[in-house]
Fold this protein.
Amino acid sequence: MKDIILKINGLTGGYNDEAIVKNISLDINKGDFFGIIGPNGSGKTTFLRLISRVLVPQKGNIELEAVDINKINLKNFCQRVAFVSQDTVVNFSFTVWEIVLMGRIPHLKRMQLETEKDFLAAKAALSMTDTLHLKDKKIDELSSGERQRVFIAKALAQQPDILLLDEPTSHLDIGHQIQVLDLLIKSNKEKNLTIIMILHDLNLASAYCNRIALLNTGSIFKQGLVEDVLTYQNIEAVYKTVVVVNRNPISKKPYVLLVPGER
C-alpha cells in the first residue's frame, strides 16, 4: 500500500467570496504522477494555487503528511513543495544560472550566501533538464522551450518532495512537449518525486500520468486510474464533444480521437 503524501479534505476556495473549487476530496500518493484535467473554467488552476498556498481555503484543508499545510512554516513548506506556473514573468535580465540558484532560497538562512551544496544542486538540476550549456545566457534570450526547462530546473534545484506544474507544455511544439514531460517522468521515477500537473492535452495526460482527476465546474467529476477516467462517456459528458477512445498500440493506455462535427 502506497503512502499518502497529500490529503485534500472537502476543499473549497476561490477569489474574494466566490468559490471556484467546491468540496474536493482527494488523496495523492507518494511517487504519483498525478494529472489534473478538465475544460476551461473548471477550476484546475485555482485548485493548484490552493495546494501551493497562493490561495487560502474557504472551507476544508490540505494535509502534507498529516499536517495542515497552512500551519507549516512557509520556509519549511517551500523546502518540500515547488510550483511552476504557466506563465512565469521575469522582470530582470537574470542569467539562467542566477534563475536556477533562486530555487535554493528556501534552504538558505537569512542573508546567507550559497554554498558548494547549493551550487551542486543547481548544476544537477541544469544537467537533468539539459540546460547546463545555457547557464551563462540571459533568460530573455531563450526560446519558449528553453525557458520552460529552466524554470523546471529552478524547481528541481529546490529539491522538493512535491512538484506542482500548471500546464508546463503550453505554447510548446510537440518535440518540446515530449522533451519536458520525459524529463519530468525521469525525475518522478529516479527520485520518487511526486508530481501534480495540469494538462489540457488528454493524450499527454494518458501517456504520462498514472492517476488523473477530471474536474468539471469546480468539482471532481471522476478520479482514478487513467483507463477508468478517460472513457468516451466521461469525456463527452464534461467536454460536450463527441470522441472515440481507443488503446494506444504501444502503451496500451487510452487514446482520444476527436470526431469533427462537420466533414
User: Anything to note?
Assistant: The two ends are 49 Å apart (CA to CA). The CA atoms of residues 57 and 218 lie 14 Å apart. The chain has nine helices and twelve strands.
